[in-house]
């Protein structure tokens, strides 16, 4: 388990959603997939991030889309899943309202 935890920290440490090496990772609701209740106290959530990958024969690298599964443990999983679904819906509704006010339509593509 320690190796998995260390590996996930390395992945998140090199993702584009992190502002700096000392900041937390902020993933927009649009990049969060629907949660899945594993047990009454374990929730699985897939998030879409942009991982930094080194380019061979180069000093640099680039960010590539990647999906990461995050497990939330010791939580009321069903209630937390419901909260995730609600937050995603609210984020979508806010975007639609913003588009309606700005462009006069709620169907503007992001």
- The amount of helix comes to 25-40%
Hey, roughly how much beta strand do the residues contain? 25-35%
Distance between the termini: 38 Å
Overall SS class: alpha+beta
Shape from CA axes?
flat
Over the alpha carbons, how many angstroms does the gyration radius reach?
17 Å
SSE pattern: HEEEH
- Order of strands, widest sheet: 1-2-3
Q: Give start-end ranges of low-pLDDT stretches.
A: 1-7
Strand tally, please? 3
Report the average pLDDT across residues.
Answer: 79
Number of helices: 2
Largest sheet: 3 strands, antiparallel
Can you lay out the helices and strands and say which pair or pack?
Elements: H1 2-13, E1 36-39, E2 42-54, E3 61-73, H2 77-103
Antiparallel strand pairs: 1-2, 2-3
Q: In a nutshell, what does this entry contain?
A:
The chain is α+β, with helices and mostly antiparallel strands and 110 residues long.
Question: Your description of this structure?
Answer:
The protein is an alpha+beta fold. It is 35% helix and 27% strand. The protein contains 2 helices and 3 strands; from the N terminus they run H-E-E-E-H. It has helices at 2-13, 77-103, and strands spanning 36-39, 42-54, 61-73. Strands 1-2-3 form a 3-stranded antiparallel beta sheet. Strand 1 and strand 2 form a beta hairpin. The termini are far apart.
């Amino acid at each position: 388990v320690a190796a998995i935890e260390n590996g996930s920290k390395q992945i998140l440490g090199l993702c584009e959603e992190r502002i700096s090496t000392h900041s937390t990772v902020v993933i927009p609701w649009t990049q969060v997939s629907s949660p899945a209740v594993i047990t009454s106290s374990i929730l699985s959530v897939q998030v879409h991030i942009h991982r930094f990958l080194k380019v061979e024969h180069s000093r640099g690298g680039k960010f590539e889309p990647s999906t990461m599964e995050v497990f939330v443990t010791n939580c009321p999983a069903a209630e937390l899943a419901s909260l995730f679904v609600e937050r995603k819906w609210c984020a979508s509704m806010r975007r639609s309202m913003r588009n309606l006010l700005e462009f006069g339509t709620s169907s503007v593509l992001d």
